[in-house]
Amino acid sequence: MDDLRKIEVFYNKKQPFKEGIVLLRSLAKQTDLIETLKWGAPVYTIKNKNVLGIMAFKEHFGIWFFNGVYLKDPKGVLENAQEGKTKAMRHWKFNTIEEIDKGQVLSYMEEAIGNRKTGKVLSEQKVAELKMPEWLKEALMGNLEAKKQFKLLTPYKQKEYYEYISTVQLEKLNSRG
Hints:
Layout: H1 3-12, H2 18-28, E1 34-38, E2 41-46, E3 49-56, E4 61-65, E5 78-80, E6 90-94, H3 102-117, H4 134-141, H5 144-152, H6 155-176
Antiparallel strand pairs: 1-2, 2-3, 3-4, 4-6, 5-6
């Protein structure tokens, strides 16, 4: 099944928020956005760059703005989509179709499009080079299998270990004091 058919299936699927997501889709289609399918859901793009997505969940439905951090949000409706995980994405949740003010939603969409066109995006921040705690380095040198497994971890996970180990080490030092 091609992406366009999958998008139609998404919007025609029987679910409690069908009317709401169809209305959001009709608003998105009034803009310059191109409708695509990513992660099994409709995502709207400009020049193949993600601008927004429309989603339905168990308790609500809404719009994800990929660089929503830059939206002015005069109504104060945007929430961080995944606290602690995403820095730029913002989510506008709705519980009923009656909550949708078409003019406001369209205004947020147009602002998001304008931001994307002018390159207003939160870029990935370079991760500072990781500094392995000295005693962890020594421990891994004494256990080649542990060292091999540790190197298979992503830099992000390695950093988490460094931070955790350093915290535990500080707590031990403080408890002795």
